[in-house]
Each structure stands twice: as structure tokens, then as C-alpha cells.
Amino acid sequence: MYNVIFLCLICLVSLAHEESFVRFFQWLHRNGCRNVPLKPAVFPGTGRGMMATKALKHEELMLVIPQRLLITMDAIMDSYIAPYIERADPRLTPTQALAVFLMCEKYRREKSFWRPYIDILPEEYSCPTFFTEDDFRLLPNSLRGKAKAKKYECHKEYKELAPFFKMLADLFPDQEDAFNFKDFKWAWSAIKTRALDVPIGRESCRHLRDAEDTPTPTMFPLVDSINHAAQAKIRHRYNEKSRCLESRTETVYRRHAEVMNSYGRADNDNLLLEFGFVVPGNPEDTV
């Protein structure tokens, strides 16, 4: 029997009327992502997520997202920052390239094709890169060092990009304090908590380092707003012919239930380190 997930209507708060989400769904529709059976809502226990606007069946084709809506390495290397990336020394990693591109698109404001998407991304994240010293002190000793290492990694990557940021200074002459650490931390955390590794655009990675040995992160608007549940599953497939990402749910949902997806089997330590949350009663936790 297929797993059925449902949620009492009184427990959720719809966000579909908020201006940023109205613009976001209009942007999706204009660019070919239509008949979306999802709406944003706030759920108890998981926070902001996606609600089914109709009953969803097992193996139902839930989303068809055209490639032009995705932020892929192809999109980055076809953009205005491609010449800078090609001249970078040292070369950027795929994650660095994506982080820089997100920062640039944020600075471009209304000129950015992806502005409706960027406007719905959280300003802050609950992952270790945003932890304060008080937060670290609350962690058990076995986890504190690993969490601090995550924050250190973000600082290290930012410092490594200092020469590259100087190359980009002429792109935003009127942007005060462009390419500051706060903006990089935002972009880095968005990637680490939301991006998926799907083999789209790998051929554009020849100017990047470690591209063959590390994941190629891609930002998937809408898909990345779906929260984690270990028992849920959404199967993603890139259709080369239609140049669309197709998502099918392998879980059955009633109307107004929260649609969820498994981020992989992970105990709470790893979920906190990678995504910034824990799951009460996580079956992957061991004593």
C-alpha cells in the first residue's frame, strides 16, 4: 500500500497571497511551468513548504519545469560573468561559480530574469554558516567541531574569491559594498541547503576546477521549496527532448497536504550540518 500523507487544514497558513509568491508563480507560468498543483504555506513542525492544491496520485507527473527556469552551469556560462570566470585565477569551483552568480543576480534587481525566484529565497538560513557562538555552545561536543568546520569552509571559500571579486567590481559600480561576506554567506547557504546535483550543464564546466570530482549544483525553482520527510519520495528526470525537468511523486497526497521529498537517509547530526534542521524521532538516529 502506498504511503498517504495528509494534514488538517486548520494547521496550515497559506502564503499564496503574498506579493512575492504571486510574482513567483506568475513568472513560472509565463515561462512555461503551468498547471502547478502546489501552493506555498507554513506548516507546523516543518515551517514554510508546499501544499497540494489537489489530490496527487502515485507516479503522477507533478511538475514540468523548463530548463530556462533552472540556474545551471550552462546558464552561468552563457551569461555576462562567463568571460570573468574563464579568466579567473585560481579557477572557480562549480559551487563558487553558482554562489557568485546568485550574488550578481541579486544585485541586478529588476534586470535579473530570476528576480521573482531570488525574492522568495530566505534572507537567512538555520545551517551552521549562520550559527553564532551561543548556538555553537548549545551543541554537544561531538557535533560542535563539525558545525564550526562548516562555517569555516564558507569563510575560506569567500577569502579565496577575493581576487575574483575585484575583477567583477566594474559590473556594479553603484552597488555599495558589493560582494560582501553577508551576501556570499546567503548565496552559499542557499546552494548548500537547496541545490540539487543533476547532470545538466556539465559540458560548460571546462573552465571550472574540480568539476569532474565534485557535484554540479543546480538551483531548481519551486522544487527546492519542498521540505524533507524520510518516507516521502519525488523522482526527478531531465527530459532531453523537451528540455524540461519532470518530477513525479511516489507518495499519495490528499488535497491541502504538505508535499514532501526525502533528502536522503541521514541522522539528525547530518541533517543539522547539511540543512539546518532535525527530525523528531528520526529512525536514522542510533544510540
From TrEMBL:
This protein's record includes keyword Translocase: no
Keyword hit for Repressor: no
CDD domains tied to this protein: SET_SETD4 (cd19177)
Gene3D superfamilies with a match to the protein in the record: set domain protein methyltransferase, domain 1
Annotated signal sequence range: 1-18
InterPro entries the UniProt entry points to: SET_dom_sf, SETD3_SETD6_MTase, SETD4_SET
Keywords: Signal
Coiled-coil zones: none
GO MF, any single term: protein-lysine N-methyltransferase activity
Record protein name field: Uncharacterized protein
Organism the protein comes from: Branchiostoma floridae
